[in-house]
Amino acid sequence: MPYSNELVTPADIEHYDLNSLWKRYYFVFTGLSWTIDRESESYLLLVRRNPEDMSTMAFAFLWDGELKEELLHMDGNRAADGRYLIRWRLLTKPLNAAPSGPATHHQARLAALKAALTAYKSRGLNSSSELSYAIEFEF
Questions:
Q1: Which residues contact 88 (CB under 8 A, 6 or more apart)?
Q2: What is the residue-averaged pLDDT of the chain?
Q3: What is the pLDDT of residues 15-45, one digit of tens each?
Q4: For residues 85, 112, 14 and 50, what is the CA-based torsion angle, rounded to 10 degrees?
Q5: DSSP annotation string for the chain
Q6: Which of 25, 99, 129, 138 has the fewest CB atoms nearer than 10 Å to its CB?
């Protein structure tokens, strides 16, 4: 099952122990949305933005049972063909550095992160359904 943008449900909060994230990041979780692949139990959740540069964001990314914070920068603009072009740049050092585990695990994690960000588009559930998106990655 691919990633999709959904509202977080009370059952999700309990199943994924999201209260620990709320406490860590001081969320207001009413109407909170995320990007989730329910089959693989993997999710991408925006947890904070840099107040001085709103294009730099921290996400909680659960993949293969491992929850990590990923710091990303998003550039977005209209392309010549009318689509909205989004370029994601990964700022998190552990993923940019040489992988500590098997290279295939590292590459699979990056592929899953790209799939989640492709579904997320520019704003997850709040991304415009009227725009056509082109997603690029610098990682």
A1: 72, 73, 74, 117, 135, 136, 137, 138, 139
A2: 89
A3: 999 988 888 887 655 568 999 999 999 999 9
A4: -40
A5: ---EEEEPPHHHHHHTTTHHHHHHHT---TT-EEEEETTTTEEEEEEEEETTEEEEEEEEEEETTEEEEEEEEEEEEE-TTSPEEEEEEE--HHHHSPPSS-HHHHHHHHHHHHHHHHHHTTTGGGS-TTS-EEEEE--
A6: 129
